[in-house]
Amino acid sequence: MQEILTIKHLSKSFMIHNLGKQIEALRDICLDLREGEFVGITGKSGSGKSTVFKCIYRTYIPQKGSIWYQSKNFGLVNIAELSERQMVYLRKHEIGYVSQFLNTMPRTTAQELVKHAVLEMGHKEEYAEWEANSMLEHFELDRGLWDCYPSTFSGGEKLRLNIARAMVKRPRLLLLDEPTASLDHASKLKVRELIEQLKREGTTMIGIFHDLEFMENLCSREYTMRNGKLEDIENLT
Predict the structure, then answer these.
(1) How would you write the pLDDT of the chain (237 residues) with one tens digit per residue?
(2) Strand pairing of 38-43 and 204-208?
(3) Which domains does the chain have, with CATH numbers?
(4) How far is it, in rounded angstroms, from Cα 7 to Cα 67?
């Protein structure tokens, strides 16, 4: 299998202007990810896990290093140097991101939100509606909520909707930032079921987890973040 993502010597720091202090969030991160792999990352809050994801998704721009991604549309590209237009394309068509927080379009219902994700991939209206409904049913989101605005949802309902919206697109690369953070046991099993299905279909994934039990027998490799550095725990394959 070829490598789909190669991170080389990635570093990121933040300036706290009112304190005149610079905080080093990432230090010399290196990671290779092959097609179809699922890599798990653990670590304490504030260790830099989410910052890695935000650099891959290009909501943060690193000070040093490169993030080489094998795009289906553009070929091999360095995400750190892509144009905004190219990055928007990758977010719509190739790279998915599930965060703990749900950002939605105003006056958009739960069903419309998931359906819109499918339409972005170029599918027709009828197929998009069918896929959206199937995904909402899988995550057991009450049908009475489908035509409601997500701003009224509980934390767990918002997270399930966020996961449904990202997974329905079946992206080539999926970033999962604490996808089970506020879910009950039954909902966690639904997430795991979808992850296992995506693995079978060839989706490459990186996941950040505090729930070590959830990661068991799921990851190809496991790393931990300590003080901005990525450390290999063991090779599970």
Answers:
(1) 789 999 999 999 988 877 778 888 999 999 999 999 999 999 888 888 999 999 999 999 999 999 999 999 999 999 999 999 999 999 999 999 987 665 666 688 999 999 999 998 889 999 999 999 999 998 888 899 999 988 888 877 887 888 888 888 889 999 998 887 777 888 888 888 888 888 888 899 999 987 777 778 888 899 999 988 998 876 444
(2) parallel
(3) 3-235 (3.40.50.300)
(4) 5
**Which tokens is 35 given?**
């097609």
Nearest to 225 by CA among 29, 15, 13, 57: 29
157 sits in which H/E element:
helix 155-167
The two three-digit tokens of residue 223, written as one number: 């790393």
Q: How many residues does the chain have?
A: 237
Query: Count of CB atoms within 10 A of residue 141's CB?
Result: 21
- The pTM of the full predicted model, rounded to 2 decimals, is 0.86
Of residues 24, 84, 57, the one with CA closest to residue 208: 57
Q: Looking at the DSSP assignment, which residues form a beta bridge with residue 96? A: 174
Q: Would strands 221-226 and 38-43 be described as parallel, antiparallel, or unpaired? A: parallel
Q: Which of 33, 32, 145, 53 is nearest to 100 (CA)?
A: 53
State the sign of the Cα–Cα–Cα–Cα dihedral 2, 94, 52, 199.
Answer: negative
* Contact predicate 210/50, CB 8 Å: no
Distance (Å) of CA 27 to CA 51, 153, 232: 11, 38, 15
Closest by CA to 208, choosing from 195, 226, 222, 220, is 222
